[in-house]
Amino acid sequence: MGPREVASAARLLDGVATRTPIELSRALSDLVGGPVLLKCENLQRAGSFKLRGAYVRMSRLTDAEKARGVVAASAGNHAQGVALAARMLGVSATVYMPSGAALPKVAATREYGAEVVLDGTSVDDALRLAQAHSERSGAVLIHPFDHADVVAGQGTVGLEILEQVPDVRTVVAPVGGGGLAAGVVAALGDEHPEVGVLGVQAASAAAYPASLAAGHPIPAGRMATMADGIAVGRPGDVPFALLHGRHVPVRTVSEEDLSRALLFVAERAKMLVEPSGAAGVAAILAGAVVQTPAVVVLSGGNIDPLLLLRVVRHGLVAAGRYLQLRVRVDDQPGTLASLLGELATAGANVVQVGHVRTGVDLAIDEVEIGVQVETRGPAHCAELLTHLRSAGYRASEA
């Protein structure tokens, strides 16, 4: 598979998929010392790049296949892509989603007209159920990443990048099953050996590094990541062959990296993305070395507001904007007020306060106060601890 197949997919998507914008990130550019741009697939129809591959795959079905309907499995983005493509093409669609799938993604999939079945605890569970449904009913399985048409459709992201940033030297893309990164590789073909591709996976759901080292797909172990869009247990055979053949490196990022990146994109790029959509930015912030100009794909923006609230809080902690303190004081009237006064003097905003009055390591006349405060960053956190200790408080970071 190469540029010809991707160009053919692009013709099918003309008037269907949005040509998403590319925005310069000055903050990331300053960090790496060269231009870093963001490919905003979070602004794509249905909120992610997944519409591209789903539509290309389904548009090439025969009339008889379309009449049997389609079935898919997804944590949310592929589900919405399949549901929207099915509505455009007049095809009935059933989508299996994990029972813990984000409610907004479930609701959007249903609103596009698909029947949603919630079952299993992971994308891999949902995929097994979808495969069984296909065998039982004759519905065509629209795999989220392991099909040449799907990969070609996702590759149109890479084709647009080449047109929008002709001198691009690195494309950074999130990796789950591998369809997006493999599509970019296909779009580059042999005509652009100067352009590198860097894949990024969540460290707690990373099947690709070991698989690439072994030369064949290896299932990951237990997966536990907020980045549900890339929480895939096994690389797809089709995308793996492309990524392995081009020697594409895949690095991992932590949950702290992901939450920090999501907060960074919201604050500095004014973009709302989901954790998997921020994986490329997380890699840059974590020190990934890239040749510039580099383009980071923001792969999706379908985030559950409740998850967004938790992730933002987590990101603030990871960025040093929240500080959890333990302060031991004498159990006397006025000591809490004095402590809060010292925190106010140091410029900290108190968010939460708690008391521990009994504990094996506390004296009878002691109380431990737990205080969560908002700060201006890591340097301010250090200043707060120094200030409290200078004022005679036995303070430590919780």
UniProtKB/TrEMBL annotation:
GO terms for biological process: isoleucine biosynthetic process; L-serine catabolic process; L-threonine catabolic process. Residues 324-398 form the ACT domain. CDD domains: ACT_ThrD-II-like, Thr-dehyd. InterPro entries: ACT-like_dom_sf, ACT_dom, ACT_ThrD-II-like, Ser/Thr_Dehydratase, Thr_deHydtase_catblc, TrpB-like_PALP, TrpB-like_PALP_sf. It catalyses: L-threonine = 2-oxobutanoate + NH4(+). Keywords: Lyase, Pyridoxal phosphate. GO terms for molecular function: L-serine ammonia-lyase activity; threonine deaminase activity. Its EC number is 4.3.1.19. NCBIfam families: ilvA_1Cterm. Catalyzes the anaerobic formation of alpha-ketobutyrate and ammonia from threonine in a two-step reaction. The first step involved a dehydration of threonine and a production of enamine intermediates (aminocrotonate), which tautomerizes to its imine form (iminobutyrate). Both intermediates are unstable and short-lived. The second step is the nonenzymatic hydrolysis of the enamine/imine intermediates to form 2-ketobutyrate and free ammonia. In the low water environment of the cell, the second step is accelerated by RidA. Belongs to the serine/threonine dehydratase family. This is threonine ammonia-lyase. It comes from Actinotalea soli.
